[in-house]
Automatic annotation (TrEMBL):
Keywords: G-protein coupled receptor, Glycoprotein, Membrane, Receptor, Transducer, Transmembrane, Transmembrane helix. PROSITE patterns: G_PROTEIN_RECEP_F1_2. It is found in: Membrane. SUPFAM superfamilies: Family A G protein-coupled receptor-like. This is G protein-coupled receptor 174.
């Protein structure tokens, strides 16, 4: 602890506040996030081969959200009990997966927005080979996100993981020493690649899809109902993006500077450290909001949940078996 931290005496009160915020919010989003994303995967599994409306990307988005939800019970335990008894490796895995799942959600929200916009503007260019390309994009996205998120755990110092005899975890692990130019380079790359570029793409898709509604000659789809559904989906992606991820990426560089002891004002440090947990909880809230987005913006969800349907392939096989069964009965 350096002189900056020693001069700010309210660290224990701040830690209690942060733990209460995390424990309450994570407990609230655990059940709806779990049920919503399991339901989403069940619905998308039926329609993944029957529709081209970015279902592959939405399935991967649901997987990313579900993985984040499954890590919440350990986080809730830690924030309620103020200690981590599960060992340092599991702490690092949960800490790492938090950012992997968050940036994977950002990546797939962008993919959903781009695909739905493309299907409205140029629907005839989508074919079965492009569906295989979507799977390749998903695999590449997971690899890119996993590699890009490695600095988050690597910048933490595992040698100092106790606070008054209690084992600490997650963001309370101390930072490694890093040069100021290196810190700024990481911050700029994270903000640019992880937030600013995706935000521009999502907003651009929203504008293009809204423009297709105003111009009846734009694109090759003339069904305004289909265009409205696409616009609701893209607009929902933009709303989730702005609500969940924009506040976090505003406070993230400030929190990083505080953790690196580059902020000397105690009042400013306290304000940043009290705002950052709220924005991090908002970033976690997307795993509960995404299933609502699926339900209110995709007709597949409405059809599947309002009247459980038998997939067309199963219907055809049943009809074929009835026909062949009838023929056998006549032969006998």
């Amino acid at each position: 602890m350096n002189s900056v931290n020693q001069s700010c005496r309210n660290s224990e009160d701040l830690r209690t506040y942060q733990h209460h915020v995390y424990a309450v919010v994570y407990s609230v989003i655990l059940a709806p996030g779990l049920l919503g994303n399991v339901l989403a995967l069940w619905v998308f599994r039926v329609y993944v081969r029957e529709t081209k409306k970015a279902v592959v990307f939405m399935m991967n988005l649901a997987v990313a959200d579900l993985l984040q939800v499954l890590s919440l019970p350990l986080r809730i335990y830690y924030y309620l009990n103020n200690t981590w008894p599960f060992g340092h490796p599991l702490c690092m895995i949960c800490f790492y997966l938090k950012y992997v799942n968050m940036y994977a959600s950002i990546f797939f929200l962008v993919c959903v927005s781009v695909r739905r916009c493309e299907l409205i503007m140029r629907p005839l260019r989508y074919n079965s080979s492009k569906r295989k390309g979507d799977m390749l994009i998903c695999a590449s996205g997971w690899m890119l996100v996993c590699l890009a998120c490695l600095p988050f755990p690597l910048l933490r110092n595992p040698k100092s993981e106790q606070n008054n005899g209690e084992h600490v975890c997650f963001s309370e692990l101390p930072m490694r020493n890093i040069s100021t130019p290196g810190a700024w380079a990481l911050l700029i790359i994270a903000e640019l690649v992880g937030f600013i570029i995706p935000l521009i793409l999502v907003l651009a898709c929203s504008c293009l899809t809204a423009g297709s509604l105003r111009d009846p000659t734009a694109g090759a789809i003339h069904d305004r109902g289909e265009k409205r559904r696409a616009f609701r989906m893209v607009l929902s992606c933009a709303v989730v993006f702005l609500l969940c991820f924009a506040p976090y990426h505003i406070t993230m560089p400030l929190d990083f500077l505080v953790k690196a002891n580059a902020v000397s004002s105690c009042s400013l440090r306290d304000l940043i450290l009290r705002c950052h947990p709220v924005t991090l909880c908002l970033a976690s809230l997307n795993c509960s909001l995404d299933p609502l987005m699926y339900y209110f913006t995709t007709d597949e969800f409405w059809r599947r949940l309002s009247k459980p349907e038998i997939p067309e392939s199963m219907t055809f096989s049943r009809r074929l078996s009835c026909i062949t069964g009838g023929e056998r009965a006549e032969d006998e």
